[in-house]
Design a protein that fits this description.
Elements: H1 15-73, H2 75-96, H3 103-123, H4 132-145, H5 151-184, H6 190-200, H7 202-205, H8 215-225, H9 227-230, H10 233-251, H11 256-261, H12 263-276, H13 278-289, H14 314-336, H15 344-348
Helix pairs in contact: 1-2, 1-5, 1-6, 1-12, 1-14, 2-3, 3-4, 3-5, 4-13, 5-10, 5-12, 6-8, 10-14
Pfam family, one: Glypican
Subcellular location: Cell membrane
Membrane topology: Lipid-anchor; GPI-anchor
């Protein structure tokens, strides 16, 4: 009653043993593919973690530099500006990690929140009545009066170019993990599991427990079993090329690190522009939002404090170097894995599975 290991000579197998062998080859094949995938998956997961850690370090550095701008140059609004600054960097982080948001909306929302503070604390520091309605009016007016000139637009244009490649790389790395996980759990067809039993376990039915498959026979069986997986070869090569392109984009002129560290300067330039155009802004705002209550005197001119850019600190340099090195190591490794899916059958037939150093091996029917 044997279905797979049929042979002319007496056998010590039963149908139940054949079923056990089929369960064994399915389990072994999954484990073998998992072992092959492990190093590749380990590299990708490791890079995702390293990328996120280095990115978060750069982001914290840029946020601290931006907060220090308000604390040193714009003290009257430093406390109230803390929340918009935090929201801006949270939005940037979420964008990189794939959230459904845009850099433009994050930057414009930040400047919408900033304008009421700049207007009431720096341009007209005598304002005492900053009601919710008046604050909301200032927020809405910001888009029409454009108090920050070209600086707000320049900031999101530069950030968008830099963060786009980082966002795409983050998504691409996650996709890589998904592909590898899917191939690990690809179901074996009935024909494949029968072929694997015939190759690995049918010799046992003849009492030949030490004999192993011939190399060519193993390759034929594995290629047949993994035809659907090896079809990923062209797409995998294209995927590696895309990763290479994205890492090069990140290291090119629109560098992520430079863009993040430049946020402080962009905000400073934007605030200075608004202060220098204070009288015209006040005239327009008064027409649209009305005149709020003010204390005597206006000290706006005393609050224009240009800030010199702080020199790059050791923390930033280390995070920058770390991210660059990680990118380089990772892409070099991934380039070596271009043929991963094309050569998967050869790799599974390597090692202890087949007989390489002997003239005697199993060809599926007999010992040759």
């Amino acid at each position: 009653d044997l279905q797979i290991c049929q042979h002319r000579t007496p056998t010590c197998c039963t149908k139940k043993m054949e079923e056990s062998y089929q369960a064994a080859v399915r389990r072994e094949r999954t484990q073998s593919i998992q072992a092959l995938n492990f190093e590749l998956k380990y590299m990708i997961v490791g890079h995702i973690t390293a990328f996120q850690e280095a990115f978060e370090s750069l982001l914290r550095f840029a946020e601290n530099r931006t907060s220090s701008l308000f604390e040193t140059a714009y003290r009257p609004m430093a406390k109230e500006a803390a929340e918009p600054v935090k929201e801006l960097f949270t939005d940037i982080s979420l964008y990189i990690l794939g959230a459904e948001t845009t850099v433009e909306s994050a930057v414009l929302r930040f400047f919408d929140s900033l304008f009421p503070l700049v207007y009431s604390r720096l341009i007209n520091p005598g304002i005492t009545d900053l009601s919710e309605d008046y604050t909301e009016c200032l927020r809405l007016t910001r888009q029409d009066v454009n108090p920050f000139g070209r600086y707000s637009k320049n900031m999101f244009t530069e950030l968008s170019k830099s963060l786009w490649a980082s966002r795409m790389l983050s998504r691409a790395l996650s996709l890589g993990i998904e592909v590898i996980n899917t191939t690990e759990h690809a179901a074996l067809t009935k024909e494949c599991s029968r072929a694997l039993v015939k190759m690995q376990y049918c010799p046992h039915c003849q009492g030949l427990t030490l004999i192993r498959p011939c190399v060519g026979y193993c390759l034929n069986v594995m290629r047949g079993c993994l035809a659907s997986v090896s079809e990923l070869d062209a797409q995998w090569r294209e995927y590696i090329s895309t990763l290479e392109y994205l890492t090069n984009e990140m290291a090119a002129s629109h560098d992520l690190e430079i863009a993040l560290s430049g946020i402080r300067n962009s905000i400073n330039e934007a605030i200075l522009h608004a202060q220098l155009n204070g009288p015209q802004l006040s005239a327009t705002v008064d027409k649209v939002c009305g005149q709020p209550k003010q204390q005597e005197g206006n000290m706006s001119s005393d609050n224009i404090v240009p800030v010199k850019e702080a020199t790059e600190t050791q923390t930033f340099i280390m995070a920058h170097a770390s991210l660059n090195n990680k990118r380089r190591e990772f892409i070099n490794y991934m380039k070596r894995s271009r043929t991963f899916y094309a050569s998967i059958a050869e790799r599974l037939c390597d090692g202890d599975l087949v007989m390489r150093d002997s003239s005697t091996c199993w060809n599926g029917e007999d010992v040759v």
